[in-house]
Amino acid sequence: MKKYLITGGAGFIGSNLAFALAEERKAGVVVLDNFSSGNYKNLMAFTGDIIADDIQSRAWFGKVGAVDAVFHEAAITDTTVTDQRKMMEINVDGFRNVLEFALQAGVKRVVYASSAGVYGNGHCPMKEDQTPTPENVYGFSKAIMDNVAREFAARHKDMTLVGLRYFNVYGPREYYKGHAASMMFQLYHQMKAGKRPRIFKFGEQVRDFVYVKDIVRGNLNALDAERSGVCNLGSGNPGNFNEVVEALNKAMGLDLAPEYFDNPYSFYQNKTQADFRQAKALLNYRPQWNLADGIADYVKIMGETKI
Ligand SMILES: NC(=O)c1ccc[n+]([C@@H]2O[C@H](COP(=O)([O-])OP(=O)(O)OC[C@H]3O[C@@H](n4cnc5c(N)ncnc54)[C@H](O)[C@@H]3O)[C@@H](O)[C@H]2O)c1
To answer: Rounded to whole angstroms, how far apart are CA atoms 119 and 130?
Structure first.
């Protein structure tokens, strides 16, 4: 039986991946998490092991045991955090530790979460080889992770490092991210409470929203990638905020008009759109969920679960 380590496995994407690896791939899973933004409730019914520790330390190296690959999801994921040193220490130095673990343990494959945040308000559709222009230190930390990975892969040619630049992910198990959860999550809860959905004026901002089930698929496909590289993971079907409200209204059987308000952020991405030719070539990635279908599935699941 294959066995995988997921850092950040108690979080939104990591927990969805943990269940997919266990259920679809019948694999063993070890989660490493410090529970700073994740929660044990994301892992209810999880059958694997959990190491409660921090990627900033190396104390956990001896606890993991033999694994076939590492999925690295742990990070500061709140993009509004402005403490530059903290962001770099956790996201970049923490990643260095994970790579060092893989090296010492003889693990030949590391799949890690990068982000569309590296592109900031750069040219759309966003391509992996365009110069990063992050709008905040979060996006900057992810761009530096990609540099670290590139250099590490060049030095260790027997290892495969796959970076996945997730776009705007939504789906179940986001509850514990609080204000950092996706706008789908925020709007769903506002509308469920009978309130008008609050979005920035005038709802024309475009995002490449991608359903977490496609993100999981991209991660699973990365197990078969034949070389190292970094790929965008988006939906290829971007939508604007008004369209999100429309799809939520339809899926929830509501008719609530948006309430527009001023965007308070000076560092905001107004448009994101993934070019996923690289993901297709390296990962055979083909997104299955467009915005309307993803939201409909999400709303159905949210009706059945509290997370
Ligand atoms: N959700 C998105 O839209 C999105 C978009 C782009 C990139 N990403 C990236 O995907 C990855 C997963 O994000 P998510 O949305 O699931 O966020 P999340 O906050 O739900 O998950 C992150 C997990 O990492 C854990 N963690 C944080 N710091 C840690 C540390 N120092 N040591 C050990 N564990 C630690 C948290 O407790 C949490 O369980 C992150 O690397 C994030 O930057 C997410």
So the answer is: 8
